[in-house]
Amino acid sequence: MKPSAYPRLFLSYDTGWPDLRREAPPVLRIFLLLVLPFSLLPAAMIAFVASGNASYYAEHIPASRYSEIAQLFLLTELLSVPVMALAIRSVVMLRGPAVSFRQCFLLAAMAPVPMWLSSLSLLVPNIAFHLACGFLGLLGASALLLHGIPSLLGVERGIEAEDVSYVVLSLGGLMWALMVGLLLVPLLGI
């Protein structure tokens, strides 16, 4: 698939998805070329905050503590993709169609890209801007899942795909909330 087709995946069941379904790269390649670089982005943004704007977010936390937070967040991001791939596969297989782990991993790796990109909002020290970008990232991830489940995984469109999508979105939201919680606990000193 051409990178220029990626934006169309948010709105279409038919553009780009068939190519991905036919030519899903190996899991290791997806991990090394998609998950790892994009997972590094939020960790790098947390380190950036520590270097200049740490007092804007939490005055009581020394900048050195942000390094630990960034490492913990990176680790949870890297672990969350295979966990979500297994969850997606389990939910889809409960509904009937056999689906490969590779396809589920690809979807689990592609879905958080908008959220990873939303971490760039940390370049601007404005919490309202961060919330807006985070919401847009979550919306983008949801759109990728809603279109990817029937198109990439072969779940029949309609109520079946919607049911699977809602379960996967709920699991993804729970995973995201846990990751944000892991980030906030050290920041709030709990």
UniProtKB/TrEMBL annotation:
<feature type="transmembrane region" description="Helical">
    <location>
        <begin position="30"/>
        <end position="49"/>
    </location>
</feature>
<keyword id="KW-1133">Transmembrane helix</keyword>
<dbReference type="Pfam" id="PF04893">
    <property type="entry name" value="Yip1"/>
</dbReference>
<keyword id="KW-0812">Transmembrane</keyword>
<keyword id="KW-0472">Membrane</keyword>
<feature type="transmembrane region" description="Helical">
    <location>
        <begin position="166"/>
        <end position="188"/>
    </location>
</feature>
<protein>
    <recommendedName>
        <fullName>Yip1 domain-containing protein</fullName>
    </recommendedName>
</protein>
<dbReference type="GO" id="GO:0016020">
    <property type="term" value="C:membrane"/>
</dbReference>
<feature type="transmembrane region" description="Helical">
    <location>
        <begin position="129"/>
        <end position="154"/>
    </location>
</feature>
<feature type="domain" description="Yip1">
    <location>
        <begin position="14"/>
        <end position="159"/>
    </location>
</feature>
<feature type="transmembrane region" description="Helical">
    <location>
        <begin position="69"/>
        <end position="92"/>
    </location>
</feature>
<dbReference type="InterPro" id="IPR006977">
    <property type="entry name" value="Yip1_dom"/>
</dbReference>
<feature type="transmembrane region" description="Helical">
    <location>
        <begin position="104"/>
        <end position="123"/>
    </location>
</feature>
